[in-house]
Write a structure and sequence with these properties.
mainly alpha; 63 residues
């Protein structure tokens, strides 16, 4: 149980987000701001788009 507590702490999730570019399941906006901050050349602006982009309807869509 202690492992789960440590792995879901803000400090550990912040390190994972900065170093590896992995999204945190926590709802901490500071962690989202720091996503991939230690990785050079990684673009993260599109990860938090508010609108879902849906393509044109096709004959293969069921609804």
């Amino acid at each position: 149980m202690k492992v789960v507590e440590v792995m879901t702490s803000d400090e550990v999730q912040l390190k994972i987000a900065r170093k590896y570019g992995k999204m945190s399941p926590l709802k901490n906006p500071e962690i989202k701001k720091q996503l991939a901050a230690d990785i050079t050349g990684m673009i993260t602006q599109g990860a938090f788009q508010e609108r879902l982009q849906i393509g044109p309807r096709t004959v293969y869509m069921s609804c």
